[in-house]
């Protein structure tokens, strides 16, 4: 035992006096926060390579002219002219849809909401994330209970999430296709959804109806994702807290309000952050169900202008989309910090 201790001390002494001595001493003098950042350095470098570099390249590309940049020659440096044209509507004539809605001086101060790619994207993001969070929270509460057949219920909830977007889009497209879909009727024989006034008889040709159905389809698929994340957070809660609450006479609502909700809130906010980022980039479900001509989104503008090819305009829309997503992420991070999460 003494021999092993001496050999260990000798090895430690050799490391301190060897070629790496200065590095070892430097790391030992770091604080816990500094050492944590040191361990994160490789991940940050990798993130910079796969995320920051493409973003910087996109911004650089947006500063050069394409066929739509006024009198400038193709490939000529034009600075922020592409951004000015995008926000003033000078590019709308060549885009599948307008970037911004038309602003007025009367309430609700905007018109042509459904013809604006930005407004359609924001409407989709707000309503899809809201309902996915609520439904996913309810599913997680159910799955967190101990009942017979819980494993099969979990599998049933996960199935929609496992369906590829293209297949999901075709399923919903066929369900609401006139003369084919069983959920859509005709003018002479309207279905229940038509009678309730939720959709018309040709919903996939109308922007408002198509957007409504796309939101429903996305909620059907992705609420399972929210449920799994929230369920993971719920199962990490110490069950003894509920036992103490029961002994104290707390009702189920009081247990939920005082224990479950505060402890699960950080997980819910992280799940909402993931879904918000993904929803802002919506493209696949739109293209497979109704098409970008019917339901424009920011990603639709990026793809259509890139295929034109209008690389300067495409890069401009892509960078603006990334900036909006960064703003949303900043709001979430600010809420995390203000709540001490």
How do the helices and strands line up, and which of them pair or pack?
Blueprint: H1 2-17, H2 21-28, H3 32-61, H4 81-88, E1 102-103, E2 110-111, H5 117-143, H6 150-162, H7 165-175, H8 192-195, H9 207-235, H10 240-247, H11 252-280, H12 284-289, H13 298-307, H14 311-339
Helix pairs in contact: 3-14, 5-9, 5-11, 6-9, 9-11, 11-14, 13-14
Can you give a write-up of this model?
The chain is mainly alpha-helical and 341 residues long. The protein has 2 domains: 95 residues, no CATH class; 190 residues, MetI-like (MetI-like fold, Orthogonal Bundle). It is 67% helix and 1% strand. The protein contains 14 helices and 2 strands, in the order ααααββαααααααααα. The chain has a two-stranded antiparallel ribbon with strand order 1-2. A hairpin with a 6-residue loop joins β1 and β2. The longest helix has 30 residues. The model has no long low-confidence stretch (mean pLDDT 81).
Task: Report a brief summary of the structure.
This protein has 341 residues and is an all-alpha fold. The protein has helices at 2-17, 21-28, 32-61, 81-88, 117-143, 150-162, 165-175, 192-195, 207-235, 240-247, 252-280, 284-289, 298-307, 311-339, and strands spanning 102-103, 110-111. 67% of the residues lie in helices and 1% in strands.
Average the pLDDT over all residues and give the rounded result: 81
Give a count of the beta strands, DSSP E runs of length 2 or more: 2
Main pleated sheet: 2 strands, antiparallel
Fraction of helical residues: 55-70%
Shape: flat
Instruction: Spell out the helices and strands N to C.
Output: HHHHEEHHHHHHHHHH
DSSP helical segment count: 14
Portion in beta strands? under 5%
* CATH fold group of the largest domain: MetI-like fold
Name of the level-1 CATH class of the largest domain: Mainly Alpha
Question: Structural class of the helices, strands and pairings?
Answer: mainly alpha
Cα end-to-end separation: 47 Å
Rg calc: 27 Å
